[in-house]
Amino acid sequence: MDCKVRKLFARVIFVALSLSLLHFCFFLSWLLIGLKTVLPAMASGDDSPIFEDDESPPYSLEKMTDLVAVWEVALSDGVHKIEFEHGTTSGKRVVYVDGKEVIRKEWMFKLVGKETFCVGAAKTKATINIDAVGGFAYEYTLEINGKSLKKYMENRSKTTNTWVLHLDSEDFRVVLEKDTLDVWCNGKKMETAGEFVDDGTETHFNIGNHDCYIKAVSSGKRKEGIIHSLIVDNREIPETVE
Fold this sequence. Notes:
The protein is an alpha+beta fold. Among the domains are: 67-145, Lipocalin, CATH 2.40.128; 157-237, Beta Barrel (Lipocalin), CATH 2.40.128.180. The chain is built from four helices and 17 strands. Keywords: Apoptosis, Cytoplasm, Membrane, Transmembrane, Transmembrane helix.
C-alpha cells in the first residue's frame, strides 16, 4: 500500500513540475480574481450583490486599474472619447465609447491583436491595435477609417470646417463637410437650403430662432480653393481649429 501511495505522489509531483509557467500564471490569476470576489462577501456576511440591478458602475476600481489608453476623436457629430482597458495577465479587453461599453472580452490567450468598433452617428470605423514592444510592455494605437488618428485628423482638417459659438446660454458646435456639404450642429445633421449669390453660394439653416448660413466664395488662389464662412444673425463667426 505504501508503495502505491509513493508512486501516486511521484506522478503528482511530475505533473506539477511539467506545468508551464503560462498555465501557472493563468491559474494564479483565476485564484486572485476569485479571492477578490469572495473575500468582501465573506467579510460582510451578505450574499447579495453590491449593485441590486446587477450592473457595474461606469467607472469601477477594476476599470481604473486596467485603463491603458484614452483618445478623443473629433467627428462631424461631436468629439467622442474612446477608452481602452487591457489586462496584461488575463488578456482582458474592454472598449468604451463616450462612457458606454461596446466591447468586452474577459479572457484572451493572445495578448496582442486588434479590436474594431464604430464611433458616432455615421458609424465611423475605429480600430485599436495592441502591439508588444518588448518584455511585458505594450503599445496601443488608434486608427480611424484605416488611418492613424494623426493622419485622419490632418485629412479631416482639409475636408471640414468647424465653428464653436455661444447662443442663448448654450454652446453650439457647427461642422461643414465640404465633400457632401452636410451641416452638423451638436451631433445632429441640419436641414439646409442652398442658393446661388453673386459672389458664390450660401447654405441656410436655423439654430433655434437664429438665422444662419455658410457662405462659400472663391479665394482666387489655387492652393486655398473655396473659403467658407459661418454667418449667424448677420455676424461672422471665427473658425475653430480642432
